[in-house]
Amino acid sequence: MFRDREEAGLLLAAKLKKYKNDHGVVLAVPRGGVPVAYEVARELGFPVEVILTKKIGHPSNKEYAIGAASLTDYFVVPHENVSVEYIDRELQTIRSRLKEMYKKFMGDKQPENLEGKTVIVIDDGIATGNTILATVNLLRKSNPAKIVIGVPVASKSAVEILAKEVDEVVTVLVPEQFYGVGAFYDNFSEVSDEEVLFYLDKLNKLKKAG
Questions:
Q1: Which of these, 208, 155, 203, 188, lies nearest to 31 by C-alpha position?
Q2: Considering Cα of 192, then 194, then 196, then 202, what sign does the dihedral take?
Q3: Nearest partner of 130 among 25, 204, 56, 203, judged by Cα
Q4: Nearest to 150 by CA among 137, 159, 141
Q5: How far, CA to CA in Å, does 205 sit from each of 20, 40, 47, 73, 191?
Q6: Does 133 share its domain with 199?
Q7: Same domain, yes or no: 35 and 61
Q8: Using CA atoms, how far apart are residues 97 and 115, in angstroms rounded to an integer?
Q9: Residues 6+ apart with CB under 8 A from 153
Q10: CA-CA 20 to 30 A from 140: which of 21, 75, 118, 161?
Q11: Cα separation of 130 and 133, whole Å?
Q12: Domain end among 41, 75, 106
């Protein structure tokens, strides 16, 4: 059980120490992954940025993911009755939303070049693994040297699925009984945009001081 996301981040950072000498970058899944990523990036001395991806839903059921998009890339699993026009429209809508989020959190900073780097994707926990799997599929297109997923808590089934797709899945807890991510935190209150900016700002100050 974790007190909050910062404590979970400290415990996770200790398990990720082995990557400290790599040429790497921490990618935080907003919003809940940012306080966790703050502790990891501080320990490893890696730059951090928010990773923005959104699922592309099926036209007849938006909750059913048929792919995912980032600001620069996308992938879609072919489905019958899904037109190219629909995908183009969805990409435009998703990307305009992601651009707003990126501008809010990262300002005018150019996204990190991930080629040849150890990329550590951080979230506050994983229930099914489907969303993060979509993110991994997009990241692979950037040709990183390694993709590592780091989370304080994950379900057994999610770890099994993700372990086949990435170089390593690093967790603090993989409970026998999984009741949802929030069940393993004393404080799992929603992370606000202001808190995201607070943690990113603290890291920037540390980087400048260092």
A1: 188
A2: negative
A3: 56
A4: 159
A5: 20, 16, 12, 31, 21
A6: yes
A7: no
A8: 25
A9: 2, 8, 125, 126, 171, 172, 173, 174, 175, 181, 184
A10: 21
A11: 5
A12: 106
Contact 158, 133 (CB under 8 A): no
pLDDT tens-digit readout, 74-123: 888 888 889 999 999 999 999 999 999 999 998 888 888 999 999 999 99
How far is residue 69's CA from residue 92's CA, in Å, rounded to a whole number?
10
Which helix or strand (DSSP H or E) is residue 146 part of?
A: strand 146-153
Distance CA 50, CA 54 (A): 13
Strand ranges of the sheet holding 54-58, from the earlier edge strand across to the other edge: 54-58, 61-69, 74-76
In this prediction the pTM is 0.89
Q: Could you tell me the residue range of the domain that residue 10 belongs to? A: 5-51+108-209
Number of domains in the chain: 2
Cα 32 to chain center, whole Å? Answer: 9
Q: What is the pLDDT of residues 32-56, one digit of tens each?
A: 999 999 999 999 999 998 998 888 8
pLDDT tens digits, 51-70: 988 888 899 988 788 888 98
- pLDDT tier, 126 (very low <50, low <70, confident <90, very high otherwise): very high
Burial class (CB within 10 angstroms; exposed 0-12, middle 13-18, buried 19+) of 19? buried
**Which one, of 10, 63, 9, lies nearest residue 34 by Cα?**
9
Is residue 84 domain-shared with residue 168, that is, in the same domain? no
